[in-house]
TrEMBL record:
Enzymatic reactions: a fatty acyl-[ACP] + malonyl-[ACP] + H(+) = a 3-oxoacyl-[ACP] + holo-[ACP] + CO2; (3Z)-decenoyl-[ACP] + malonyl-[ACP] + H(+) = 3-oxo-(5Z)-dodecenoyl-[ACP] + holo-[ACP] + CO2
Enzyme class, first EC level, given as a word: transferase
PANTHER family (UniProt xref): 3-OXOACYL-[ACYL-CARRIER-PROTEIN] SYNTHASE 1, POLYKETIDE SYNTHASE-RELATED
Protein name, entry field: 3-oxoacyl-[acyl-carrier-protein] synthase 1
Recorded family membership: Belongs to the thiolase-like superfamily. Beta-ketoacyl-ACP synthases family.
UniProt keyword annotation of Transferase present: yes
GO molecular function, one term: acyltransferase activity
Organism of provenance: Christiangramia sediminicola
Localization per Swiss-Prot or TrEMBL: Cytoplasm
Length: 424
């Protein structure tokens, strides 16, 4: 039997919203979550701004026990646990406190670098000969699969529980991996998503590469400028996004609310060959990924109503648009609407794909298109290819049937997923 996969729950911890309702409101209003950080200034960073979710002590205490909070020093785990737990509850699923795992439910929750602050703390203690002061959770907070392990224990999942890591493609890749598992009949539901730590030890390498802007430290909300002629680099961000994927029949039996359907997608790599490199995508691989995502979803390029692009506010934005026009064979007024959330959140690195998948699904479910902020001066190379009204600068109320979401990451890796309005 051909299984259909739907989305029944979502959660988010983003720089501009730490729950689904707040996040949706920020998207509609074009609200930025990018702020100035004095610590980055004191550490002589060129770029002294970033996107960081605001988590209060009161909120922390709703998700972690006092014992769990003791020594917890991994922002990625905090973000992921909040987003993942919220998505589970949003799907109408219970968190059972018994001795029996939920064999039908699994987790694929990715990350890039986890627990850097905990590593730093541990290194100092070890160097000082104080190893026994590390605490019992240092391993859990610094192993890559720490986030899926935390969520697996909280939710009691007995199916596959694992972590993936593919740079900025991580979250979108996790979603497609979960989709494949349900499609193959190996699970009824999968919690999928990704998270990323914040702070100087994550963002410092990018500052050293000089790919972050340095002229907006006094105007942080104007700094991230996807598709803009004045874009001068991406703003680093952090957070987490989570989605509950479920076999349609299982969702219907539960009477679950269905946000959207996952039609399919594709994951590939350019092999760092041709124009592809560790930091730049092989354009042919991007085009193939888009085209294969459409083929695997049994739709044509003309079916796509909206693209939620990767679009990081670098000189690669115009190249990404070129790749979309070639892959879809659509240009000018025939091109779909396109937007990027990164003007509001910055580039949340390993968390970006999942946060942006949540943003994509919200647009389908609530019938709106969020604006591209800081894009009043669209790059002229982009205007040669698509009409400017395809890049909305204000919120649009519009029904969306099919949305293509893309993520492209360091290492020349790509992922494209196709979401569709659910029709029974």
């Amino acid at each position: 039997m051909e299984r259909r996969v739907v989305i029944t729950g979502m959660g988010v911890t983003a720089p501009n919203g730490v729950d689904i309702s707040s996040f949706e409101k920020s998207l509609r209003n074009g609200k930025s979550g990018i702020r100035y950080f004095k610590q980055l200034d004191e550490l002589n960073f060129s770029c002294q701004i970033g996107g960081k979710p605001e988590i209060s002590e009161e909120l922390l205490n709703k998700y972690f026990t006092p014992l769990q909070l003791r020594g917890l020093n991994s922002s990625g785990i905090i973000y992921g646990v909040i987003a993942g737990t919220d998505a589970w509850k949003d799907a109408g699923l219970k968190i059972e406190q018994n001795d029996y795992p939920d064999w039908d439910s699994g987790i694929i929750f990715g990350t890039g670098i986890l627990g850097v602050d905990k590593f730093r703390e541990a290194i100092h203690l070890i160097d000082e000969g104080k190893t026994r002061r590390l605490g019992s959770t240092s391993v859990l907070q610094t192993m890559a699969s720490g986030i899926s392990a935390y969520l697996g224990g909280i939710l009691g999942c007995g199916n596959q529980v694992t972590t993936n890591s593919s740079a900025c493609t991580t979250g979108t890749e996790a979603l497609l991996m979960g989709y494949d598992r349900i499609k193959a009949g190996k699970a009824k539901r999968m919690l999928v998503g990704s998270c990323g730590d914040h702070g100087p030890y994550i963002w410092g390498g990018f500052d050293a590469m000089r790919i972050l802007p340095n002229k907006y430290n006094d105007e942080p909300e104007k700094a991230s400028r996807p598709m803009s002629a004045s874009a001068s680099g991406f703003i680093p961000g952090s957070g987490a996004g989570a989605l509950v994927l479920e076999d349609l029949e299982s969702a219907k039996r539960r009477g679950a609310r269905i946000y959207a359907e996952v039609l399919g997608g594709d994951i590939n790599s350019g092999g760092q060959r041709g124009e592809g490199s560790m930091t730049a995508a092989n354009n042919e691989a991007v085009e193939r990924c888009i085209q294969n995502a459409l083929k695997n979803s049994n739709i044509s390029s003309n079916d796509v109503d909206l693209i939620n692009g990767h679009l990081t506010a670098t000189n690669r934005d115009s190249v990404e648009i070129i790749n979309w026009t070639k892959a879809l064979n659509r240009t000018k007024n025939d091109f779909p609407m396109i937007n990027s959330i990164k003007g509001m959140t910055g580039h949340c690195l390993s968390a970006s794909g999942s946060i942006e998948c949540v943003a994509s699904v919200l647009q389908i479910h609530h019938k709106f298109i969020f604006p591209n902020i800081n894009c009043d001066d669209i790059h002229p190379e982009i205007l040669k290819l698509i009409d400017q009204d395809k890049i909305p600068r204000e919120q649009k109320e519009q029904e969306i049937n099919v949305l293509a979401k893309a993520s492209f990451g360091f290492g020349d890796v790509n992922a494209v997923v196709i979401f569709k309005k659910y029709i029974a």
